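Researcher: I'd like a structural prediction for the single chain below. Treat it as a standalone chain; there are no partners to consider.
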Amino acid sequence: MAVKKETKKKKILVANGEGHVHIQATSNNTLVTLTDSNGNRLDQSSAGALGNRGAKKSTPFVAQQVVETALKNVANFGINKLGIFIKGAGNGREAAIRAVGSVGLPILFIKDVSPIPHNGCRPPKARRL
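Model: Treating it as a single chain, here is the predicted structure.
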């Protein structure tokens, strides 16, 4: 009979203590990813992962809960400074930023990385009467 080998989960520590919070606030959902300064994912959370369904996923209250859930393990990774990248124009945008501020860690920057069209879509043809 084979003996099952136990494996321990590798504990990740951030070298310089700086982490980034990537928030994607769409009209249907809020996604939060916690990374180190190199972009390696440490933790993530979303409104659907917390058990919310349908229209509740896009509310500011749920966005706040998503950020708090993702950042509750921030001390385990050795992060003591945060930078925020926010994308999208959803309802939970402002609430998510406020929730990051309530954690108590210093915020280095807040950067909006929403995609902006340079010239937009091609307009429709002129109507012929």
